[in-house]
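Cross-posting from the modeling subforum.

Setting up a comparison between two proteins and wanted a second pair of eyes on the formatting. Protein 1 (sequence, then structure tokens):
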Amino acid sequence: MPKRILFQGDSITDCGRDRNNFYGMGGGYPNLVKAALGMDCPNEYEFINRGISGDRIVDVYARIKRDFINLKPDYASILIGVNDTWHEVNIENGVDTEKFENIYSMLLDEIFEALPDLKLFLIAPYVLEGDGTCNTEENPNKWEFFKADVESKAEAVKRLAKKYNLPIIELQPEFDKACEKAPNNYWAYDGVHPTACGHELIKRAWLKQFNEIK
């Protein structure tokens, strides 16, 4: 029986997936992972994407039963955090870092209580300066806050990975290194949402980590 892999997160993971298709993967890194693993390991894995555009950690926690525990994955990854900042910047409905870390910890506690054999790794959020994140006349300090707050969320994810002894992918250094070779919008067109090349970057980091824990 194929092992089940679950991708969880926000729009970066969602990437336009078909909600009416149980196995809808969207057009981002989960689909690229499926293509690569499916080609190299036919019938060994089953792939499920449950990322939802706009989600914050509180939203992922609210659907933990339906979109995580009930699916009983063998492997899973979680990429969440940028909307906890972005929603604060745009609509004053973000999640501060202390609450983010507390809710994330509750999420992990409940997941491992229900799925003790799950192989899970965390993916820390990232942000680049771009059309969606840069300073504006109305918000001249937008980028400075955006960068600092996403960094604080990434540090929280690192602390959680250490606390639960989980592998972690740190995407910020990966994107920063890539931006030395091509402009920011080559990798993330608005500073957050990846281009095709940005999704390929995440897919390669994902597969590298997966191959270390499988």
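Protein 2 (same layout):
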Amino acid sequence: MHSIEHYRNEFISYLGSKTETKEPVNLYEPITYILGLGGKRLRPVLVLMATEIFGTDYKKALDAALAIEVFHNFSLVHDDIMDDAPLRRGKETVHEKWDINTGILSGDAMLIKAYQLFENYGGDTFRDLAKLFSKTAIEVCEGQQYDVDFETRDDVTQAEYLKMIEYKTAVLVAAALKMGAIVANASLEDQNGIYEFGKNLGIAFQLQDDYLDAFGDPKTFGKQVGGDIIENKKTILYLMALKLGSIEQQSELLDLYSIQPQDPKDKVKAIKDVFIATGSAKQTKLEIQHFTQKAFKVLDHLKISEDKKVLLRKFGESLMQRSV
């Protein structure tokens, strides 16, 4: 087995060799641009790592890894259009740098390119990869729609929120791991097991993101701390506070979410105080721990060596201990 950094560097090198700006330039240049903005490359790394965990050379999975990274970035291009976001990873978003029509068309081309990459696999591997990818892609779209719907709803439940983040975020992490298992021709039981590991870890990862958005260190957190609060996003912290808080605390929270002051600092502080006072902050940390442990329990049933299980646990722990 190799280090995470090794897989990441190998993938970035492969990405560079496969990315070119050809004619028509206005279609392909935005694709080169968004793929070159960096990021953690978490999903392709998971594809490569899972392939080796199940006893196959990770290089055989490079096209599957590239497919999932292209798809992920396609979804970001379209999400940024929907959110009218000006920045992505500190740089102009595609629709801002070019225009909305370019963002839509280049995004569409990325989705098709992602499917094309599976053509490099034969027989059952191609079929299983394409089938998983199609299922995952539609779930990501469903998750995005749930997220949009929740913006105008005041009755979102915790169960609904967990389903939304499962579809919008976690299934892509799960699919990345299962793709590696498919390329490695692992048993169906192990394919489904590594998928469940990834899904639960992905949910924990998003809950951690919600928590860090409110309580992360501004020096290390990659985004504006309190950004979700400023945008009145109903994250797990908000839903927990409404569930656990007194009538007075619920009323205060609803009032704070209904205002948009010129300087949001006081609003952010007041809402964070409510999250702490209601026990929402503490309970959210327990939920993160719950889904992380749920992921780790799956590892007991995987037919892989103990040292590989340790590697997956360490990877999961590193995700949950992050401050960015």
